[in-house]
Specification:
388 residues, Rossmann fold, Dehydroquinate synthase-like, alpha domain, 2 domains, two-stranded antiparallel sheet, 14 helices, 8 strands
Length: 388
């Protein structure tokens, strides 16, 4: 197991009827900006409920944060924070709203060109670059990204998607009430299951470092998703199934299973390009790319693929290659059982676009991906060809 430095200060309020906790953890004299997305939080009455809990505090609203939040939109919110002297932000939404709110929080006190904050990638923004932020909390409406309990975000700018990481970008608190997610469209729930699944495998199916606790926690998340994935899509108000999805999503990317282990993220990096170029949902891009990654990288990942086959899918007979083959098949079948297509061609993308995707990877410096940093553009092209 590698050395690690684990830090996570986010307070979680999980379960039914937790909105009231906001009153205790938002300063009584705060000028509050509520951030949200396309309007479902408003139409459902959730924003009004949040405002009721906030009571006599001065409250402003900023809606319209897109899926894959855009830098230009977020900068409009930064102007609101600055002009109205906002001192607390409350993100009401899923991963995109929370990611966008993290960037707003980081940018509001930054004196330079705020696009500078997109240049650090997976390296945390140094505290001498951003030393002061606007504190924020979240009310989660869509389980998927784990953004409600981590310090990372992905922001769309020009023709790319950029990772933003900073120790100051952890939410102060997050409200995780599974009942708030009951009205989600089935496609969003399915995307969330797949996003959570691949978040977990990006940190698990790499190579062994004898991190037994992290491995078994990851396997527990994966087995839970396999057990409840179809149920929570078919039975929207099955509280137990949805509660397990919500907590799985949070646990998959709050840093715990990723401590002390190698991490991949190839699927996410290629998937981001598919979203940017073709507008394919993030969860769908992962379902397209991940089975192909496992096929192309099966030798690099052999030991962990065998462990995955045996412990997660309970495949105990056959040769090593037969076990790996079946594990990859079962992974694809699981994604498809959720109603998600797993081939690029099924989304109207033609084969001649593969070189375009590869060029975008090159343009964004994504030329040495994977846990071993040897996944070059030629290998990325092979993955895309198999994914087609």
């Amino acid at each position: 197991m590698y050395n690690f430095n684990f830090y996570n200060p986010t307070r979680i309020f999980f379960g039914k009827e937790q909105l009231g906790k906001i009153d205790k953890f938002v300063p009584a004299d705060a000028r509050v900006l509520i951030t949200f997305g396309g309007g479902s939080a408003k139409k459902s009455g959730l924003i009004d409920k949040v405002k009721t809990v906030l009571g006599s505090r001065t409250v402003f609203e900023f809606g319209g944060i897109e899926p894959n939040p855009r830098y230009e939109t977020l900068m409009k919110a930064v102007e609101v924070v600055r002009s109205e002297k906002i001192d607390f932000i409350l993100a009401v939404g899923g991963g995109s709203v929370i990611d966008g709110t993290k960037f707003i929080s980081l940018a509001s006190f930054y004196n330079g060109d705020c696009s500078d904050l997109l240049k650090f990638g997976f390296m945390p923004i140094p505290l001498d670059v951003v030393s002061k932020v606007v504190p924020f909390g979240t009310v989660l409406t869509l389980p998927a990204t784990g953004s409600e309990m981590n310090h990372g975000a992905v922001i769309s700018f020009e023709h790319g998607k950029f990772a933003v990481m900073c120790e100051l970008a952890f939410p102060k608190f997050s409200i995780l009430d599974p009942t708030i997610t009951f009205t989600l469209p089935k496609i969003q729930v399915a995307n969330g299951v797949i996003d959570t699944f691949v978040h977990t495998t990006e940190q698990y199916i790499t190579f062994p470092v004898d991190a037994r606790i992290q491995d078994r926690m990851a396997e527990g998340i994966l087995q839970t998703l396999i057990e409840i994935g179809e149920i929570t899509i078919a039975e929207q108000e099955n509280y137990d199934a949805r509660a397990n999805l919500v907590w799985s999503s949070t646990m998959a990317l709050n840093g715990i299973i990723g401590t002390g282990v190698p991490q991949d993220w190839t699927t996410h990096m290629i998937g981001h390009e598919l979203t940017a170029l073709f507008g394919i949902d993030h969860g769908q891009t992962l379902a397209i790319i991940y089975p192909a990654v496992l096929e192309v990288r099966r030798e690099k990942k052999r030991a962990k693929l065998l462990q995955y086959a045996e412990r997660v899918w309970h495949i105990t007979s056959g040769t090593e290659d037969e076990k790996i083959d079946l594990a990859i098949v079962k992974t694809r079948e699981f994604f498809e059982s959720l109603g998600i297509k797993t081939h690029l061609s099924e989304y109207g993308v033609t084969k001649d676009k593969i070189p375009v995707i590869v060029e975008q990877l090159k343009a964004h410096g994504l030329t040495a991906l994977s846990e071993t940093q040897d996944l070059n553009l030629e290998i990325s092209q092979k993955i895309l060809e198999i994914a087609f």
